[in-house]
Design goal:
Elements (H helix, E strand, L loop, with lengths): L5 E10 L2 E11 L4 E5 L6 H9 L6 E6 L2 E2 L5 H8 L2 E4 L11 H5 L1 H4 L6 H14 L16 H13 L5 E5 L7 H18 L2 E6 L2 H7 L2 E6 L2 E6 L10 H8 L10
Parallel strand pairs: 3-8, 3-9, 6-7, 7-8
Antiparallel strand pairs: 1-2, 1-4, 4-5, 9-10
């Protein structure tokens, strides 16, 4: 199919009197890895929730391969969500379930069925993120922070989704483990041929994961370009953010 995999036009969302997204226009091509950067409170997570159908925009259009997502409910929304894989910021694993059931949750919809086959599938996917088969039987409480992230990544890719979403994938990790997660995300996105959308404030993640970077500020996308252009973007907001400077247009909000 020609055209963007994901297309946003005029997406706006306010909470009470506070506008968070004012007019977001954004296209993501099939197979592209897009990273959205921006400071805390700029609306990155709200934008992601709008795409996932967890928050309804006040106005605007969100299309997946031409299908309008805004306003979908029930079975129609579930069908489109089945094409998504998601790595949540905190991992969001189910503490009461062993790792293998967490990894295969999207395949079973949480039901206990085909246990041997599902565990085998989990072991196969865990290997892709560098985890041993024995991890499949552990509970999340027994995992380190880096292992939790890798299990969460395994869950995101287990159903071979068309489009992957990553919410601050390296939050809480030291630089070495963060680099490992970045490399694993890039490797899996490439090997699957999936489209990926990542939100982060971590510039190392952006440079590793992205084919293209977009900056969200004041409720809009104010710049987009390849990672190589970040250091010399010509945009003062991007320049201040990328170089971590205290002075600049972002200082005044």
């Amino acid at each position: 199919m020609s055209g963007p995999r994901l297309s946003l036009r005029g997406v706006a969302r306010a909470f009470g009197a506070k506008p968070v997204l004012t007019h977001v226009d954004l296209d993501v091509a099939p197979g592209e890895s897009l990273v959205i950067i921006g400071g805390s409170g700029t609306g990155k997570s709200v934008l992601l929730k709008c795409v996932l159908g967890l928050v309804r925009p006040d106005s605007g259009s969100i299309r997946l391969d031409g299908t309008e997502l805004v306003g979908l409910r029930g079975a129609a929304l579930d069908r489109e969500r089945a094409r998504f894989g998601m790595l949540f910021q905190g991992g969001a694993l189910f503490d009461s379930l062993p790792v293998w059931r967490n990894v295969t949750f999207a395949l079973t919809r949480g039901r206990v069925r085909d246990g041997a086959a599902m565990r085998a599938r989990a072991v196969e996917v865990l290997a892709k993120v560098g985890l041993e088969p024995a991890v499949a039987d552990l509970k999340p409480a027994a995992l380190s922070g880096g292992m939790l992230k890798r299990v969460a990544l395994a869950r995101a890719i287990a159903a071979a989704p068309d489009i992957l979403f990553f919410d601050e994938p390296t939050t809480g990790l030291d630089p070495i483990r963060a680099a490992l997660i970045n490399d694993l995300i890039r490797e899996q996105v490439r090997s699957m041929g999936a489209t990926a959308v990542t939100i982060t404030h971590d510039m190392a993640s952006a440079r590793t994961i992205a084919d293209r970077v977009a900056m969200l500020h004041a409720g809009r996308i104010i710049w987009s370009g390849p990672p190589a252009a970040l250091a010399d973007s010509g945009n003062p907001h991007v320049d201040q953010f990328v170089h971590g400077r205290a002075e600049g247009p972002l200082a005044s909000g």
